[in-house]
C-alpha cells in the first residue's frame, strides 16, 4: 500500500463508517404498514488521493409484502404499478438480504466497522429499511441503527438547496426530472451529490483536518 493510500482510506474518513447510498420507493409514508416497491443501493470508494467516487450498485423491484397498504396518492406520485408482471419484482426478504450481503462484504473489504445510510431526506429511507429488516426477521443488521448522512441537510449547508434536483444543479450536476422517483436514478444522483459535497469540502481544505489551522480561541 502506498503512502497516499494509507492516508486516504475510506475507513478513516467517516469515523470507520461505511457510507451506503440508498433510495427506496414506497406505497406510502408509514414504514410499518406501507409497501416497499423499489430499492436501490450505491456503494462508494475513496481513491489514493482521498477523492470519493461511486463504486457498485444493486437495484430491485419489490413485491408488496402480505397485508401491506397501497396508497393511491403514492402510486400516482412515483408512477409505479405494484402488480405489473413486467416489473420483475422479487420478495422483500430476498432483496433486503442481497443488499445486506453486499454491505457486509464492503464493510469487510474497506476495513470499516458498520454501514451508514446516505440518502436524501434520510430519515424516510432509514425508517423503511429498518422496518423491512424487522418485518423479515433479518438479524445482524450491518447499518447503524439511527445515525444517517442526510444529503438534504448537507446540501442546505453547502449550496443553500434542500430539494434533490435543485441541490444537484446548484453544485454543478445535471438532473433529469423525467427520471426522478426511480430508485436507481435517485440513488445515483444522491451518490453523485454526496461525493460532490464531500469532495468540495476536501477541495476547500477541510479534509484532512489540519489542527494547526484551527483557531480554538
SS content category: alpha/beta
Number of helices: 8
The main pleated sheet reads as: 5 strands, mixed
CATH class of the domain at 3-149: Alpha Beta
Return the CATH topology of the domain at 3-149. Nucleotidyltransferase, domain 5
Span of the ends, CA to CA: 39 Å
Strand content: 15-25%
CATH superfamily of the domain at 3-149: Ribonuclease H-like superfamily/Ribonuclease H
* Unreliable residue stretches: none
- What is the molecular shape? globular
- Architecture (CATH level 2) name of the domain at 3-149: 2-Layer Sandwich
Q: Roughly how much helix do the residues carry, as a percent range?
A: 25-40%
Return the string of H and E elements. Answer: HHEEEHHEHEHHH
**Taking Cα atoms only, what radius of gyration do you get, to the nearest Å?**
18 Å
The neighbouring-strand order within the major sheet is 3-2-1-4-5
DSSP, total strands: 5
Organism: Buchnera aphidicola (Artemisaphis artemisicola)
Protein name: Ribonuclease T
Active site: 181 (proton donor/acceptor)
Cofactor: Mg(2+)
Amino acid at each position: 500500500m502506498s503512502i497516499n493510500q494509507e492516508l486516504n482510506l475510506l475507513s478513516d474518513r467517516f469515523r470507520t463508517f461505511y457510507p451506503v447510498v440508498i433510495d427506496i420507493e414506497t406505497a406510502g409514508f408509514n414504514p410499518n404498514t406501507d409497501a416497499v416497491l423499489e430499492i436501490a443501493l450505491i456503494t462508494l470508494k475513496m481513491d489514493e488521493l482521498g477523492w470519493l467516487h461511486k463504486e457498485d450498485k444493486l437495484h430491485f423491484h419489490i413485491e408488496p409484502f402480505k397485508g401491506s397498504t397501497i396508497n393511491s396518492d403514492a402510486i400516482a406520485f412515483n408512477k409505479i404499478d405494484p402488480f405489473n408482471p413486467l416489473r420483475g419484482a422479487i420478495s422483500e426478504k430476498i432483496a433486503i438480504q442481497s443488499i445486506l450481503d453486499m454491505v457486509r462484504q464492503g464493510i469487510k473489504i474497506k476495513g470499516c466497522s458498520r454501514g451508514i445510510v446516505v440518502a436524501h431526506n434520510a430519515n424516510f429511507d432509514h425508517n423503511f429499511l429498518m422496518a423491512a429488516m424487522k418485518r423479515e426477521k433479518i438479524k445482524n443488521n450491518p447499518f447503524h441503527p439511527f445515525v444517517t448522512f442526510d444529503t438534504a441537510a448537507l446540501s442546505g449547508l453547502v449550496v443553500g438547496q434542500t430539494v434533490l434536483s435543485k441541490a444537484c444543479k446548484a453544485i454543478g450536476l445535471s438532473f433529469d426530472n423525467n427520471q426522478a422517483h426511480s430508485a436507481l436514478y435517485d440513488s445515483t444522483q444522491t451518490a453523485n451529490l454526496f461525493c460532490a459535497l464531500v469532495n468540495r469540502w476536501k477541495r476547500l481544505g477541510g479534509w484532512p483536518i489540519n489542527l494547526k489551522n484551527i483557531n480554538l480561541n
